[in-house]
Write a structure and sequence with these properties.
Layout: H1 9-17, H2 19-28, H3 34-48, H4 54-59, H5 62-70, H6 79-97, H7 103-106, H8 111-119, H9 126-139, H10 147-150, H11 169-187
Length: 189
């Protein structure tokens, strides 16, 4: 299955071949449209002149990395804080996974362990970790036993709750409609 989260072929192609790009896109996916967030790793890689590596991002001069993300068009609405978060994520990956994000899920014994590993990532709370776990299971075939249960509602088959369920423009529209309905329901309580 081909990743289609950025809704731009070159950005989606990077997400499909680079686990780091996918993790960074998920990290950026807050307070901006999903497509903007998942285009972020492609924008960063274009500015660097090559695919992302955790080692390079972690060791990049922090002020220069902020400038890289803030350059127009900005990678995120909050380039300074998100640059710091991306660098923290990269440093964690270097320290704990030799800079290879796929090691997070490669040998996870089950869905609970994988969720725990994802929740340990800087910038990943439970909800973000569950959504990413669902994305791994639904779109990348990373399905340790119990992955759907660990992903919670995001792991449900046939749901349209999150980026894990976006595979084309139609499913993107369905996810947006479900999110709007959830917001309306929350406001009426």
């Amino acid at each position: 299955m081909r990743i289609q989260l950025a809704q731009r072929s070159e950005a989606d192609e990077l997400l499909g071949r680079s686990p780091l790009a996918l993790l960074v896109g998920m990290l950026l996916d807050q307070q901006i449209p999903m497509e903007w967030a998942f285009t972020g790793p492609y924008t960063i890689s274009q500015r660097l002149g090559h695919d992302l590596t955790a080692e390079e991002i972690a060791s990049y001069d922090p002020e220069a990395f902020v400038a890289l993300l803030a350059d127009k068009p900005a990678v995120h609405r909050y380039p300074k804080s998100m640059a710091g978060r991306v660098q923290q994520l990269a440093a964690y990956l270097v320290e704990h996974y030799d800079g290879q994000p796929e090691k997070i899920w490669a040998d996870a014994a089950d869905g609970k362990e994988l969720l725990k590993r994802l929740m340990a990532l800087p910038g990943y709370g439970k909800q973000k970790a569950q959504i990413f776990l669902a994305l791994l299971g639904k779109q990348l075939g990373v399905q340790p036993s119990g992955w759907r249960e660990a992903a919670g509602l995001y792991g449900e088959e046939g749901s349209h709750r999150s980026v894990a369920d976006v595979v084309d423009a139609d499913s993107l529209g369905r996810v947006r409609a479900a999110k709007q309905e959830a917001k309306r329901a929350a406001k009426s309580q």
